[in-house]
């Protein structure tokens, strides 16, 4: 592995690939290439540290270290046994293997993980007369095995815990939105911290906190205690410290307002705990407020929210989405509003034509992230462009 010229693969959610690619370009990535739920790029070791610390829409950041073709389990084992594993880990370090297999020849990812584990252990036993231990929960070194038909790729996981685990979520509601998805939605919506922001159904506060982090240009992982790359043999602690300090020095003051409403006191309490954990009490205001009885208070205003639509949250009111539309039209003139939903029939009751529709997934639920532009006067509403598919 050449620390000056790493090939890097960054995983993300469906629909956020272009957002992630733009983030990576801005952070200095070279040869940025958009894939399905991933972005490939090149950079040095410092860049790898930087994107782990800063990229908001990255889920996992991996560095491929071995690629070969295998037609059967024996060749698979032999190629792995012959690899110099001690360049990447010490015999005293623990390791774990994640596996993704798309192959007719190798059908069981768990079995292939075990074969890879055997090859690594046998390599160390032969060379050092000692074996490293496997620790699936908290390994020092994490490998990812990817098999696509005959093509085998082994990568080092540089992140460790998935990067949506920002470190500020202490409480969550019935159907919390993933932090990476929340940040991706905000960037798709064009939120850049200029103006004011409202989440009128804020739940446990994820969109509010991610909006504040974008507004202040806080690194996405400012609260994270450790990354997998800190256990690598070539880890440069001094370089990582410099990168963190440089990013922290770029944090900017936010002069607008970020506000969250909810009608559920329990949710507001969860939100309050998370906002405090993110040290955002001075930036984010939350209050008990029924959105349907609210009026626009902030100018200019962007609204992004995740209304209830999952089977985990029951909506007793059949006209729930109609009320959203009525509130938009009557109480929020000249406002840009975005919402995400999987209930594509109910959302039609909003009664406004969305000016944009973006396909996203919230967990396994296929959703649409929709933009509504409210103008004063109904004529302008009818002149909105047709929604994208």
Can you give me a brief rundown of this structure?
Residues 47-158 form the THUMP domain. The chain is α/β, with parallel strands linked by helices and 389 residues long.
Explain this structure to me?
This protein has 389 residues and is α/β, with parallel strands linked by helices. It has 2 domains: 152 residues, VC0802-like; 191 residues, Vaccinia Virus protein VP39 (Rossmann fold), CATH 3.40.50. 29% of the residues lie in helices and 24% in strands. The chain contains 10 helices and 14 strands. The strands form 2 sheets. The chain has a 7-stranded mixed sheet, with helices on one face. It has a 7-stranded mixed sheet with strand order 10-9-8-11-12-14-13, with helices on one face. The C terminus is likely disordered. One of its GO terms (molecular function) is RNA binding.
SSE blueprint and pairings:
Blueprint: E1 6-11, H1 17-26, E2 30-35, E3 38-43, H2 45-54, E4 60-69, H3 73-81, E5 95-102, H4 109-128, E6 141-148, E7 151-157, H5 179-189, E8 196-199, H6 206-216, H7 237-248, E9 258-262, H8 265-277, E10 284-288, E11 301-305, H9 320-331, E12 335-341, E13 356-362, E14 365-374, H10 378-382
């Amino acid at each position: 592995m050449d620390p000056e010229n790493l090939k890097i693969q960054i995983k993300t959610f469906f629909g956020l690939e272009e957002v992630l690619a733009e983030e990576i370009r801005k952070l200095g990535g070279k040869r940025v290439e958009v894939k399905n739920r991933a972005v490939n790029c090149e950079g040095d070791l410092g860049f790898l540290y930087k994107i782990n610390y800063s990229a908001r829409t990255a889920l996992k950041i991996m560095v491929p270290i071995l690629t070969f073709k295998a037609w059967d389990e024996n060749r698979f084992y032999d190629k792995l046994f012959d690899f110099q594993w001690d360049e990447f880990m010490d015999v005293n370090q623990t390791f774990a293997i994640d596996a993704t297999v798309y192959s007719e020849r190798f059908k069981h990812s768990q079995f292939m993980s075990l074969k890879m584990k055997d090859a690594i252990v046998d390599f160390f036993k032969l060379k050092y007369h000692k074996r490293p231990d496997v620790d699936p929960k908290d390994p020092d070194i994490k490998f990812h095995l990817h098999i696509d038909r005959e093509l085998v790729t082994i990568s080092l996981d540089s992140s460790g815990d998935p990067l949506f685990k920002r470190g500020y979520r202490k409480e969550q509601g019935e159907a919390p939105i993933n932090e990476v998805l929340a940040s991706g939605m905000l960037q798709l919506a064009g939120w850049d911290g200029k103006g004011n922001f409202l989440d009128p159904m804020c739940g446990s506060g994820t969109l509010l906190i991610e909006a504040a982090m974008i507004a202040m240009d806080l690194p996405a992982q400012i609260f994270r205690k450790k990354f997998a790359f800190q256990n690598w043999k070539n880890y440069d602690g001094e370089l990582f410290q410099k990168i963190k300090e440089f990013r922290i020095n770029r944090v900017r003051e936010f002069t607008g307002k970020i506000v969250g409403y909810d009608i559920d006191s329990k949710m507001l309490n969860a939100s309050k705990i998370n906002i405090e954990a993110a040290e955002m009490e001075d930036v984010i205001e939350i209050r008990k407020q029924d959105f349907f009885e609210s009026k626009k208070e902030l100018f200019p205003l962007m609204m992004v929210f995740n209304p209830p639509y999952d089977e985990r949250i029951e909506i007793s009111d059949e006209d729930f989405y109609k009320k959203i539309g009525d509130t938009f039209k009557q109480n929020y003139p000249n406002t840009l509003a975005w919402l995400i939903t999987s209930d594509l029939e109910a959302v039609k009751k909003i009664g406004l034509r969305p000016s944009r529709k973006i396909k996203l997934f919230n967990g396994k639920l296929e959703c649409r992230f929709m933009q509504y532009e409210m103008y004063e006067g109904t004529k302008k509403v009818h002149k909105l462009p047709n929604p994208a598919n």
